[in-house]
Write a structure and sequence with these properties.
Length: 367
């Protein structure tokens, strides 16, 4: 029999965790901030959420911007803080923002029993084409802009490599690794077992741990963040809703890329890292000088290898006159993000206008 003291300790722990969960739900209920939420049907029967933030500029029929988040995040990656978020700066500049939740997010509606089988290849080959087509039809623009943080920027690299550049007018990537050379990420077998056997429990624990890590300003190798550079209006509790734990197959794919250095997608047919030097889309890169995931030498090598001149690399660190030494996570909601991150993105998008094509569907969608 289990000793009474152990049972009492387990009961106390469960009660504590349940109490913390209730507290975070009460303080951070996760109310939608988007003007609209569109559920987009993919070819294989999934429905993924696209959160639309209409342009705030008077009379603007804004060019569409697709915003793609990192692997353990969701669309809220671009909503924080409410008064200084990337979507706020873009909509104020007249852009029509669409922040996507992939099928690896908890908002996705999966065919029966399939959520735990979602892969990053599915995101690339099924979610992104469906989302881009939906945005084109609703807005009347044949080309759109792409803003991606971390995995969201990597998906841009992969999308152009596999699907072509015809639909993308310009791209801005934040902390997106172009390759994993020199990263040396060890396998975390225990974490892999938790992903595989108890994904719901792991999601529960990670969502609880995220605000606690923020309160304690913990330094984690898997989550490189400069807490001093996080905008003061981003409370630690906000991470409770921002964090989204991917299903095992997707997490395993990302781990394989980092461990082996081979960034295989398109059903294993394409090593994206080998093909990035062929990118043709006008590309703005915003990177942290000492990001262990998106290494500075790999990023510099990518931009030097691009054969066109429509490219710009910004390394955010005090060494180059910026307000802080940015890290991987705080690129998305930095203390001085409006001036140092958002403004360069807006200027870049304006330099490469999207193409508008009026359609009946777009006119109906704009009413």
């Amino acid at each position: 029999m289990i000793p009474l003291a152990i049972l009492a300790a387990l009961f106390a722990l469960i009660s504590l965790l349940a109490g913390l969960w209730a507290l975070f739900v009460y303080r951070h209920p996760g109310k939608p901030r988007a003007d609209e939420v569109h559920f987009i049907a993919t070819e294989d029967g999934w429905r993924i959420a696209a959160h639309r933030y209409r342009p705030k500029a008077s009379g603007a029929h804004g060019e569409p911007v697709l915003l793609c988040h990192g692997i353990f995040a969701n669309h809220r990656n671009f909503e924080a803080p409410p008064g200084g978020a990337i979507v706020g700066s873009l909509t104020e500049a007249g852009y029509d923002c669409w922040a996507l939740d992939y099928r690896i997010c908890r908002s996705a509606q999966a065919p029966a029993g399939e959520w735990f089988e979602a892969t990053l290849d599915d995101v690339l080959l099924k979610d992104l084409p469906a989302a881009i087509q939906h945005i084109q039809e609703r807005t009347g623009f044949s080309r759109i802009h792409w803003v991606g943080h971390s995995l969201g920027g990597m998906l841009f690299f992969a999308y152009e490599t596999v699907c072509g550049a015809e639909a993308i007018a310009s791209a801005a990537v934040l902390g997106a690794p172009p390759s994993f050379e020199g990263v040396h990420m060890p396998r975390r077998r225990l974490l892999g077992l938790l992903f595989y056997y108890v994904p719901s429990a792991l999601s529960f624990l990670v969502r609880l741990a995220a605000p606690i890590a923020g309160f304690m300003r913990l330094r984690l190798r898997l989550v490189p963040i400069n807490w001093a550079n996080v905008h003061p209006d981003v409370s630690p509790g906000a991470f409770f809703n921002l964090v989204d734990v991917a299903p095992y197959p997707a997490a395993r794919e990302a781990e394989e890329w980092a461990v082996t250095g081979q960034w295989l997608m398109n059903n294993g047919r394409t090593d994206v890292a080998v093909e990035t030097n062929k990118l043709r889309t006008p590309l703005l890169g915003l990177y942290a000088a000492y990001d262990p995931l998106a290494r500075r030498d790999n990023v510099t090598r990518l931009f030097n290898s691009l054969s066109h001149d429509d490219k710009k690399l910004i390394v955010l660190s005090t060494e180059f006159g910026y307000s802080a030494d940015y890290k991987h996570v705080d690129l998305a909601f930095a203390r001085h993000g409006r001036e140092e991150v958002h403004r360069p993105i807006v200027e870049w998008l304006r330099a490469y206008p999207a193409t508008e094509v009026e359609t009946a569907a777009s006119l109906a969608g704009s009413e």
